[in-house]
Please model this.
Amino acid sequence: MRKKMIALLSAATLSMALVACGSSKTASTDDSKKDGGSASEIVVGFSQVGAESDWRTANTESMKSTFTEANGYKLIFDDAQQKQENQITAIRNFIQQEVDYIVLAPVTETGWDTVLKEAKDAGIPVIIVDRMIDVSDDSLYTAWVGSDFRAEGDKAVEWMNTKFADKDLNIVHIQGTIGSSAQIGRTEGLEAGVDAHANWNIVAQQTGEFTQAKGQEVMESVLKQNSDIDVVYCENDNEAFGAIDAIEAAGKKCGEDGITVISFDATKAGLTETLSGKISYDVECNPLHGPRVQNIIETLEKGETPDKLAYVEEEAFDAATFTQEELDKRAY
Ligand code: AHR
Model:
């Protein structure tokens, strides 16, 4: 790791080197650092939410294939299994290991102030990726890159508006992990749409925790109580797969002449169901953040300041016009 190399420099050279690196870390003469990295590589500790969805798998793959030894990095990867307490433990471990950067994909927005203050006090820059955090002091993180989840929800509602503006709609709403930015933004979008349409009703609203199993479970229990459903608004593709299985197991159809399924992520698997017509509209959420986080780190390494917030551009796909060619081009 670079701090070991720094320890060999004279005090004068050291202070110049720290300025050139834009680093606020305290110089150390202790050569027994704990991260196990080599003298020149940049050590990144990445706390990942979990492995709940196809999107998450693609995101993990993007990070792992970016932060490789060949690219000059050592990646310490931690899977939090959708639990914030595991992420807090991981961040504390990264601090102990004296990593160069902490990258956090936060499970929920709140609850980060204390541990990020510890990272700040240790002089370790924190980069937030994917979902956002809600902290009292913005200096607790250096930069964020991710999606505009409210805009994603609004896109879905705009499409519903073009299809169903004047129709009576019974909507089942399968939410993501409660308190995550992805859930908050997509839920706000739908609820604003429902508020604006007297004839749209949310008949059930429950979390599917962004997983296929939970999406199926929620949809099965809704179908037992209510057979008059027009739209299922799933907050990710995996929930949609579960909901589709439940709908079909109940002897009903998805798509044009059945229940309209709306989804988010637009993964290859999700868009395969869009091509088949079972997902009527799939709003993209781009998971390929590895190179984006690398750009932020490279900017910091040059002593420059990256953008504090960077939103990724995203599109949406309508089953009525989606083609095999477009599916073949998908990178994830
Ligand atoms: O934060 C992004 C969301 O998290 C994706 O929509 C979902 O699939 C993932 O688990």
Summary: The chain has a mean pLDDT of 91.
